[in-house]
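User: Before I run my own analysis I want an independent prediction to cross-check against. Here's the chain; please return only the structure tokens and, at the end, one sentence I can use as a sanity check.
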Amino acid sequence: SGAANALTLTVTVGTANKLKFNPLPVGPYTSGAVWAPSFAVSIYDAYGNARGSGTDTITVTEDGGGSFGAGTFSKAAVSGTATFDTVTYNAVGVINVGATSGTLTAAPSVAITVNAGTASYLKLTTSTDLTGTSISADSSLELKITAYDSNNNIATGYGGATPKSITFTGISNGPENQVPTVEAQPISAAVPLIFTNGVITA
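Assistant: Structure tokens:
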């Protein structure tokens, strides 16, 4: 009988067809901070094989209410992969992050959580809108103080069980030297206030 002959075949990767994250962005991230660790987007053929080649320009996309901040969000692939290591995002919330490149099928989007940064400044308002409203000299107002991060998001992490020492300014004494007060303290005195999720009313 004749001996069987072995047939050696070489299977090569197909043409560029789609994008996939590899590795994925994982989150949660902080508003304004660089997303770390970095993530990458690679080019694949129609069967899910990594191309390992290609210099297509790949762009990271998002569907949130904010915008990408500083960093590079569009770059040419190197050997079929673009690595993104300077991405930042300014708003907070859950956003869907994707990637596109010309006619290639876009990468499936990934849900990413972006949290507020540390408190950068405080904003003082009244609890109700008093626009066009007259108040008498002996009236009291409920004040609302909100902590914001440097990207104008409410800094929900500002607070805790330890009171913050807040000093109010800008209101003069009355005509008979009556001293304005906040939480029964003279307006010029430091008032201990406990913030909850970055907000306090006084």
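Sanity check: The longest strand covers residues 107-115.
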